[in-house]
Amino acid sequence: MFGPPVALVSLGLSLIIQPNSFGANQHQMIIDRIEQRAASGWVVPTPEFTDYLYPRLTLDIAGTEWVLLNKTRPLNPIDFAPTNLRAMDSSASLDNSRELRLSLPAASALEEMAAAMFADGAGQTFVNSAYRTYEYQGELFVQKIEQYGEQEALLRSAKPGHSEHQTGLAVDVSVPAQGCAIMQCFGDTVGGMWIAENSWRFGYIVRYEEGTSDITGFTYEPWHLRFIGKPLAKMYHESGMNTLEDFWGLPAAPSYPELMTPSTND
Ligand SMILES: [Zn+2]
Question: Strand pairing of 125-129 and 94-95?
Answer without folding.
Answer: parallel
